[in-house]
């Protein structure tokens, strides 16, 4: 009888210890998990700085220079079909049409899009470099722009790889490299937030580059799946 009681006491003590440990561990778990897109190397948030240097990039002249209006009557019907697989077909058509020459099919359209994207990123990097070298640019903005420039150069490299893959009809690699470029554009804006700046002056152009590259991702996805017929 005494042996049974001793065993019962022992079981009770073990159970109580486990319960105490479980309760303590649970109390250390936050009620709502926090996530950061770049959590692995993100520093502690800095105080937000509203700098007078953060003049937003003027997107309209940039787009006007690269995408002149094309009369609707001159747009090939096939282009509308090709852009139909994207998230914004009308905008896709308006951006690709000014650069189309020769036959219009899914392959030529994707090629034009990638080449145009290459020109756009090189132009954006030139603008970022010019602003970073301006004596009136603050240290934090300059540092953020320099990080952005590194990402633009990486994007240019990835787009170059996409063009190389395109030349051998490796559409899986084209798709992968365009997604990599989109990631680079996202890092450009993140550079400003990491410096505690309220916004990125390149936000509009980066948003446009992401959208334009995404058209290429959509088209290349359908191309490699052989869903579009031409």
TrEMBL record:
Residues 1-25 form the signal peptide. Keywords: Disulfide bond, Signal. CDD domains: PMEI-like_2. It comes from the Eukaryota. Transmembrane segments: none annotated. SUPFAM superfamilies: Plant invertase/pectin methylesterase inhibitor. Residues 74-219 form the Pectinesterase inhibitor domain. Coiled coil: none annotated. Belongs to the PMEI family. PANTHER family: PECTINESTERASE INHIBITOR-LIKE (PTHR36710), PLANT INVERTASE_PECTIN METHYLESTERASE INHIBITOR SUPERFAMILY PROTEIN (PTHR36710:SF4). This is Pectinesterase inhibitor domain-containing protein. The lineage of its organism: Eukaryota, Viridiplantae, Streptophyta, Embryophyta, Tracheophyta.
């Amino acid at each position: 009888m005494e042996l049974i009681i001793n065993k019962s006491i022992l079981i009770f003590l073990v159970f109580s210890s486990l319960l105490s440990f479980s309760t303590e561990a649970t109390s250390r778990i936050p009620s709502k998990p926090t996530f950061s897109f770049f959590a692995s190397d993100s520093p502690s948030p800095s105080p937000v700085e509203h700098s007078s240097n953060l003049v937003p990039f003027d997107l309209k002249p940039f787009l006007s220079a690269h995408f002149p209006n094309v009369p609707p009557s001159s747009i090939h019907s096939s282009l509308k079909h090709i852009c139909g697989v994207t998230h914004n077909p009308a905008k896709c058509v308006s951006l690709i049409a000014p650069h189309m020459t020769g036959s219009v099919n899914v392959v030529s359209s994707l090629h034009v899009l990638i080449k145009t994207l290459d020109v756009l990123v090189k132009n954006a990097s030139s603008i970022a470099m010019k602003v970073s070298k301006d004596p009136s640019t603050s240290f934090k903005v300059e540092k953020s722009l320099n990080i952005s420039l590194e990402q633009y150069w990486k994007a240019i490299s990835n787009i170059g790889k996409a063009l190389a893959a395109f030349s051998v009809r490796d559409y899986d690699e084209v798709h992968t490299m365009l997604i990599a470029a989109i990631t680079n554009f996202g890092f450009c804006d993140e550079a400003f937030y990491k410096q505690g700046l309220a916004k990125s002056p390149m936000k509009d152009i980066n948003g446009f580059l992401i959208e334009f590259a995404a058209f290429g991702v959509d088209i290349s996805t359908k191309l490699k799946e052989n869903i579009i017929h031409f």
